[in-house]
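ok trying this again, last paste got cut off
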Amino acid sequence: YKLTLLKEYSDDVRRTYRVDMTGFGGEPTCGILVEPVAEGCYETVINYMGYGAEIWYPNPSDAPERVQFILCNRNQSLNRKPDEDNLWCTRGLESKDTYYYRGVFADAVRAIDFVCSRPKVDQDRLYAEGGSQGGAITLVAASLDDRLDAMPQCRHGLFFQTTDGQNASAQSDFTCHCHITAYRNSRQRRD
């Protein structure tokens, strides 16, 4: 991981960094880390961004008792290439091996790997959240990785391609609420 201090978004309470890392399949990806200056272990929130959302920089004086990591999805926000279209959701639909969201979901777990590598992260208080596409990524990340302790209710979008090859998008009103600790406990009994 490569961390670059962003002085313009830092203060004496929390420091803000751009984090560059290698995602699934060698794809470069990045995010924004905001962590307290004071020593200690802190609750941590991973924010998974919505479809096409632009990066935001949290006020470093807000939530001084929290580590926050905002993952920029591949090919979106800070990872967007010049003149790139915004039809990410249908890329690679021909095969499960090339489908765009295969990489996005693997990168979501990579974000968990990253925050768990930080000494100020209390791994017993690790949460994830997101809205729209970010809500779907949150749900998938919680399904793939049992290190997440909880996630809030989220509204997520579901995307698909119709049989005649036309792109379609259905916004789901499905409201999910998971308490990952219960999942973790049931999984430990199974293992």
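PB: full thing came through this time. Strands lie at 2-5, 14-22, 28-36, 42-48, 66-72, 121-130, 151-161, 167-178.
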